[in-house]
Fold this protein.
Amino acid sequence: MTVGQQRAWDEHWPKLGRTVEELPAGPVDFDGWFGRSAPVLLEIGSGMGETTSQLAAAAPELNYVAAEVYDAGLGQLMLRAEKLGVDTLRLMHGDAVVLLTEHVEPGSLAGVRLFFPDPWPKKKHHKRRIVQPGFVALVASRLTPGGTFHLATDWENYAEQMLEVCSAEPALRNRHADAPGGWAPRPEWRPITKFENRAIDEARVSHDLIFYRAD
């Protein structure tokens, strides 16, 4: 980590962050942690935090939770949040699947976002992709009725896999099923990430998918 990222950890982590492996058994008390009652949105894989900090700043009505495995990324996110004056963001260090499985109550999340996850582009590695039937079923079970699962990727075959797997989940419905291909329009509110800029440079098209829990 850089000096600044380490400073962010030292100064802000005690209030803003928790480590998944160190959480007590049972669901996280998000209302108590944030100091208020508000819809909870979970972003999985916040990277270096540029997009996440902007999204949290733009939605102060949400209790925004970012899950990430890399120390430096969380440190940088805390620096960005500090700069933007964001106080409605909390960070989870560790495996989001463990977090969802063991520490998030069913039907409790207003939304889950998964933007540009590792594409594992080689076919032999596709099984390592996070978007698999079991994962999607887990996410769906944690959403409130009407809660959204928003995905984005710039890898065509991963986008197709996401569409297929999410469409096959009985609890989810595609909000843009009638749109060409079933793809969601790219939301203007989602900042362009470094991955998306790289995709543009490499002539790859990014796809958004927005599903919601039907019951």
Observations:
- The beta strands are 17-19, 40-44, 63-68, 89-93, 109-115, 143-153, 172-174, 207-213.
